[in-house]
RNA polymerase sigma factor (Methylobrevis albus), 192 residues
Amino acid sequence: MTAPATPSTNFRDGLLAEIPSLRAFAISLCGKLDRADDLVQETLMKAWAANASFTEGTNLRAWLFTILRNVYFSQLRRTRREVEDADGKHAATLSVVGEQHARLDLGDFKEALAKLPPDQREVLTLIGASGFSYEEAAEICGVPVGTIKSRLNRARARLTALLAIEHVSEIGPDATTLAATGPAIAGRLARA
């Protein structure tokens, strides 16, 4: 990789000479002094980085104004996708299920998984976590498919007992968490 070209003294002096004009143009585009200064700074940084693409003797001012204009419109497009929420009303309508219970559940699961015999843990990991089919798991373990199905069934039953799960509804957020986070989260979880 080659090092970027060092700008010439003429290029540097030209940039410095255009700063007042760039600032005036930036103010006319956005109407705010602080934002205009940011635009000029971004323009100068981009121009400095791309100095090798500028041809000496051509119109530096036009090149800089084009960069500034492109930066401005790129930022404008980006901000159109953002939601202004100065008073926090929009953020207050959003809710997220806390991770505390999920972390505790994961810890319990890891503990229970470690208590399984190695052959059951292996099959559960191959099929449940890695997504292998029964046939693929049988080939990996070097045993018949029926043995894989039997080990998996015993592993699932043992995990269910170790985790004291009586019904699939006990997996995931509890009723209290769902009530606290509101109907929007409950609806999303129901659809998942």
